[in-house]
Amino acid sequence: MPVGVLALQGDFREHIATFGKIGAAAVPIRTVRELELCDSLVIPGGESTVIQKLAVAYGLFEPIRKKIQAGFPVFGTCAGLIMLADEILDGVSGQAGFGGLHVSVRRNAFGNQLDSFETNLEFVGVAGSPVHAAFIRAPIVERVGNDVEVLAKLPDDRIIAVRQNNILGISFHPELTNETRIHELFLRMVAGS
Ligand code: GLN
After folding, report:
1. How close is the Cα of 111 to the center of ligand 1, in Å?
2. Is 102:144 a contact under the CB 8 Å cutoff?
């Protein structure tokens, strides 16, 4: 079965292209029917408040929430990480995500668009050269539950990548920097689930 990429808003095309580079089938998801034909889901970067509204409007919000609760493998980048967090700090009024990931994330933790930056990181489960990571109005993870493994931190110790069983969440955008190894890590999670 292909990987589904939630295609309501944000950089879903870049995620689909990244899976293409590593020979994995990935398809855009806009309906519950399309979701049922996948064995995993990527929630892209973009704007979490818009993804929330569109997921409700497309009837996908509850089905995705339930699937995550049931252990469906899911990978969120940036806004996608925000959508997976159980607690959102600095959210707008009424903001809610799918949840399931036992963390608190703070939105826009580095400031505005002009404070976006790129850096190199060590990443648990990714061998070889450091991961080149782009942060664009990125969130950080402020609290993690006991069952959450920290996969990467910034030099100042702020957490920017986590895994909890079948849930992978990262603050940055490998799909924008030609970095395929995190997508490969997710495919291994899907294969093992
Ligand atoms: N700041 C955005 C949000 O709150 C996330 C930014 C991104 O995905 N690059 O959803």
Report:
1. 11
2. yes
